[in-house]
Amino acid sequence: MKISKISGEVKEIFKKTAKKLSGTTKREYIATITIELLDGNARKAERVFGWGRATVKKGMRELATGIKCIDNYSARGNKKTEEKIPQLVDDIRAIADPKSQALIDEKGYTDDELPCENTIGYILNRLGYRLKRIQKTKPLKKIQETDAIFENVNKVNRQADESQETLRISIDTKAKVNIGDFSGNGKTREKEPENALDHDFVPDTQLVPSGIFEPTNDVLTIIFGTSIETSDFIVDCLEQWWEENKERLSHIGELVINLDNGPHINSHRTQFIKRMTEFADNTGLKIRLVYYPPYHSKYNPIERCRGVLELHWNGTLLSSIGKAIEWAGTMTWKGVRPVVHLLDKVYQKRVKLTKEAMKVYEEGIKRLENLPWWDVTIVPTFG
């Protein structure tokens, strides 16, 4: 059969089949086609099928002699610099290793011998010396009392949730929210996205979000402050929350409050203990402050709500206080929208009591014997 009698579709099949083969098998295949259909003419094979003449001739010689040429593809091309200059690997490692004092001029290379800067970089990558960010020192993840603190938290929380006269709440204050045309790196479903500032300049104002969460009721209250985070701000938020909910919670005689160990709410913050004692006296509520261990604030129930709020408003520009309050009010936690307020009051930093003044309040509180910093009970002077 001659090539003139072969249809174009069959020719395409020959080409596609040859592409799927490689090495000796491919050469034998294209040589056979050339001999049978093209009278062994390598030039015609190149013109009709696009196969290289040299490859076709090599395949026909292999068929004629029965000797197969073994391909050595790994030996082709430019070898890695490490293979051409074996000593270079050890020398680069000596330079890159921070424990070594070796200098490049001690190795004796010339500019002509050394590869370019990019190649040195590739070698460093292959040796494991990739560019890496400077990492902060990781804090201690567990203190000696961690297990005991968790055991106590779980026990107290369980007892509180089972009692009809006790309400457990979780409180926390998060990082300030910048008000202005700043990008939150979120997404919004709009035909045209809003335009944020190209740089995060100093904001005109900031809001301090403080949250109070009732885990058993899934009720969330968010109060935004316009000043700074202090012990007074946090207790003012608690007082505002209680004033708004005291009728609904008139049967409650004790508040169990879950907290982390933030600097403004820990149990050795004198102003916080003073204000919480006054809160207990004014409301007649027994207060029990139950703290999570250091570095484990993520277990505080209100932390779950914070992530929902950030995802909710990251796609919009919080260009004004009113817009931030509005957006916070439209988030949902388990299908329920939070109660949102604004507390416009100026607070002072570093308010604290003297040791003598603090003695009065220490006498009125009870600390758990084996965990004095992690479980504090405040009993009102009346009620």
The SSE string, one letter per element, is: HHHHHHHHEEEEHEHEHHEHEE
The CATH topology label of the largest domain is Nucleotidyltransferase, domain 5
Indicate the proportion of strand residues. Answer: 5-15%
Integer tally of domains: 3
By helix and strand content, what is the structural category? alpha/beta
Determine Rg (CA atoms, Å): 38 Å
- Low-confidence runs (pLDDT<50, min 5 residues)? 98-104
Largest β-sheet summary: 9 strands, mixed
In the CATH scheme, the class of the largest domain would be: Alpha Beta
Protein name: Tc1-like transposase DDE domain-containing protein
GO molecular function, one term: nucleic acid binding
Pfam family, one: DDE_Tnp_ISAZ013
Organism: Candidatus Methanophagaceae archaeon ANME-1 ERB6
Describe this structure in words.
The protein has 383 residues and is α/β, with parallel strands linked by helices. It folds into 3 domains: 3-73; 78-126, no CATH class; 146-378, Nucleotidyltransferase, domain 5, CATH 3.30.420. Helix content is 39%, strand content 14%. It contains 13 helices and 9 strands. Strands 1, 2, 3, 4, 5, 6, 7, 8 and 9 form a 9-stranded mixed sheet that branches. Helix 1 (8-20) runs antiparallel to helix 2, helix 3 crosses helix 4 and helix 9 packs parallel to helix 10 (270-283). It comes from Candidatus Methanophagaceae archaeon ANME-1 ERB6. Pfam families: DDE_Tnp_ISAZ013 (PF07592).
